[in-house]
Amino acid sequence: MVKQVCSDAVEIVEPAKEGYQLTLKLNLAKIPRGKDPYKVITQISSVQAVILCSQLKEMLRNVNSQDTSQGMNKPIKLVYHPREPFYVIRQPQKITAVFPMRFKEHSDVIIATAFFQELMDVGSSEKWAKAPPCTWSPIPPPELRGEPLEDLSTNGGFVTFDISSRHVEGKKLDKTVWSLLNFYAYVKKHVKGTRGFIQRRMQKRLESLVEVLHKEKLEENEDVKKFKAHAECRYVGKLVGLSKPKNFKRRCRDLTRKIMQIHFRIKIHGFRRFHRRWLTIPKFSSPLRYTKLE
A single GO molecular function, which one (predicted)? Predict the structure, then answer.
């Protein structure tokens, strides 16, 4: 495949650099000009994905192989995305894929942890019994003992999938390989979508609270306006009352005094003495006396 891309611009270096399976040497001066360079660069950049995909396919095809020469229980480090390696461990009757999860934000760790736990619960149900079993652990699994410490230092734990022969039958092989290679991207997409959903819900909640406060403020302003209008009316009435002529007030007082006099009794000078002398009922004393009998 490498030679088919551009034999003049790409050269395979033998032996490969230590720690790598393939080393390529690029001659940028021999890359064709015009529109072809973009096609050549795209093909060169996809070499790693194609090689990794082919290697993973070969391992999954031999899931039931009893050949121990390929390193039974020995982790194989695969790097599909930069700084996101995962491990494939060949075991009897299955292949285990372990993904160390790392996140930059603490909120992403919380969302991802909840997602992994939910993934475990769903995978253990009868509906998804045919799917590869999934487990999550905050500590490295025993299969990764002896691996470099920097590869095992994570803040999101470790996700493990157990791949058996039924998961790689026929067309399932390509789907399983694609799912394993893009698991990191799938998790990031889920975390990003969940964070956006939470932010939208919080924003809507904030808008509803602001609307309630704004409505309350409008009602308060209306009450203040009504109170001010009532106070102004009373003040205007008071001013109008103060602006009446003094003679009009005097007439009102005189009329009020006359009305009050009508309700009082008419007083006649000397009538009280005449009443006591001639109109008082005399007291009579009886000549008969009653003697109390003992």
Answer: actin binding
Query: Residue 130 is inside which H or E element, if any?
Result: none
Give the C-alpha separation, 1 to 247, whole Å: 119
Q: Which of 84, 76, 83, 47 is nearest to 60 (CA)?
A: 76
Q: Are 13 and 23 in contact (CB under 8 A)?
A: yes
Per-residue pLDDT tens for 130-149? 888 899 999 999 888 888 88
| Residue-wise pLDDT tens digits, 83-131 | 888 999 888 888 899 999 999 899 999 999 999 998 888 888 888 888 8
Q: Please, which residues bridge with residue 24 across strands?
A: 12
Residue 163's nearest CA partner among 101, 115, 99, 91 is: 91
Q: Count CA within 13 A, CB hemisphere, residue 7.
A: 2
Contact 76, 87 (CB under 8 A): yes
Q: Domains (ranges, CATH) in the chain?
A: 1-45 (no CATH), 63-181 (3.30.1460.20)
* Residues 56/22, Cβ–Cβ less than 8 Å: no
pTM of the model: 0.62
Quote the CA–CA distance of 25 and 10 in Å, as a whole number.
6
Residues 216-225: b if buried by 16+ CB within 10 A, e if exposed: eeeeeeeeee
Q: Where are the alpha helices (DSSP H) in the chain?
A: 2-5, 36-45, 47-61, 106-123, 149-152, 172-181, 183-242, 246-263, 271-278
* Ramachandran quadrant class, 31 (left: phi over 0; alpha: psi -120 to 50; beta: rest): beta
Q: Which residues pair with 85 in a beta bridge?
A: 79
DSSP state, 165? G
